[in-house]
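Example with several molecule types.
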Amino acid sequence: MTDVSSSTSLRTHRCGDLRVADVGSTVTVCGWVAKRREHGEHLAFVDLRDHTGLIQCVVPGSVDVRSEYVVSVTGVVRLRPEGTENSDLATGAVEVGECAVEILNIAEPPPFPVDDRGDVDEVIRLRHRFVDLRRPRMQANLRLRAKVNSALRSAMDRQGFVEVETPLLWAPTPEGAREFAVPSRLSRGSCYVLPQSPQLAKQLLMVGGVDRYYQIARCLRDEDLRADRQFEFTQLDIEASFVTQEDVLSFVTEAVLDAAEAATGERPAGVARMTWAEAIDRYGSDKPDIRFGMELIDLSGVFAGTEVKAFASPCVKAIVVEGGASLSRSRLDAHTERAKSLGAKGLAWFRVTANETDGGLALDSPLDRFLSDDERAGLLATTKATSGDLVLVVADEHRLACSVLGQLRLDIGGRPVSEGPYRYLWVVDFPMFDGVDDHGHPVAAHHPFTMPNPEDLDLLETDPASVRSQAYDLVLNGWELGSGSVRIHRSDIQSRVFAALGISDEEAAARFGFLLGAFRFGAPPHAGFAVGIDRLVAIFAGEDSIREVIAFPKTQSGSDPMTGAPKPLEPGQLAALGLQPVPQKLD
RNA sequence: GGACCUGUGGUGCAGUUUGGAGUGCACGCCGGCCUGUCAAGCCGGAGGUCGCGGGUUCAAAUCCCGUCAGGUCCGCCA
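Resulting structure tokens for the full complex:
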């Protein structure tokens, strides 16, 4: 493989590129000493590593290099002697012989092994991230990420999108995620905020006639961190004019499938689709992992009018754990505790066993003696559970019963997100509102600029909870990869939505005045989406944490073990910004 | 704000349940030997605030309380 970047003024080849075809060539390779093996004063091996891999260099004498020394090695590529080939190395058929070694820089012993064998404590890796990044795993992850970015850009370019950069210093728009504030030096006491996303900016670009915008955009949210969440993350941000939801789904599908193909070498067959209501009902989640079954089963009919107090609820749902009858009582208790911590009043379990006398099925459960014969038969028939299975039942309000069982389904049957196969899913028809705030007003499920489903417009004033929106999520293996919506471009509809949200005209003007003002000057119909690139790359890389695909991530408490951030500012810096620390409250 | 898990030479672990000398394993590191190794091999050596603080005890890596750091999760993430 030829590559214009492989040779430089200091090297002729990259370590991992040397092959039998190079035999006879005099080469110079540069890199880090991965290993030195001395065999007395007449022979030494130096394994040299760069980002492409390892090459064995043979030195006719002893050589005073240590692990991670930076060296330049010049020698002649030759076949390895018969029987000494190393099939574990891509370069294992050859070696660089008669080597002269020039030390470019010495190095202290690394704080941990610079290879992919074994795990190292993450805080130690992060403290020495510059060493960690030399490991093949991290090199592969960074390069995979670049490849995904490139595929996404190319897909958007091809589809007529134009890349536009938007400000990092934006105005506070209190709504949704907590924002990072940046104090202004020139305007003391005032702050910019770092964008949670370029949401408003990209809508303004639509008003500005950009037509199709995209950006690989950094987003910042001051919320608690998780395996799939960092303060800073990166989205493929998209907005387009004169489009419908279907157009957006098509744009994003194209980009994501291109990225998948670039990353994995295989183009996914497509993206499944499901309504939000179906996702909740069948999987108890708005981001269902559809790699496995164990779907929620509705037993409300079976227990309608039941005498069993625990099941006297609007909704009775169940999951079947195949072979789960062998779970110990302590495991079942743990699941019950988990269900309670998720808000359920309790968890009923039924072990399904073979009835020894007639060969039929029997239930083993503390609740069994309270069940009528019809309920017992109905439970078995509806769940299709068989001998050796375990049936877990939650009775509650519909949403709660679904979400609790959905979580138990993942606890019991879930697999790491990065484990194949990749199952992409569009979740569509999200509700417009989700829950109510302290004042009893509905809360926007997506954001307040989301267009309601036209069929449900007239429910805005009468039954807001049942209004569907034109909002949609992309889900992969149970992770939310991104979300988007058709936006409201007409002020009459926007006013009705603000009214439903309990946002007054004055409040709306104060928060989003610049956007609403802009919309008076000719806002086209528009819609958009944003894909979480960290999550996408992590899954492609086989990683279960996005930290593994970010060069310099933060810990769960938001610190950086390498730089020590966050740190107090010098008094002078504080003064220049007009800031004064407030002493910590003592409890 | 909350739940759970983890913290032992540079690295990864065992030891903690049932208190008894910083005991052990692998890697790395330092020195010596070694002409075909590749997780090289052989010989020798150095390296410890058992995260930190307090308590119980004749005695604490081990039990108790607190605290710090890291992780997973709930809340939070329009």
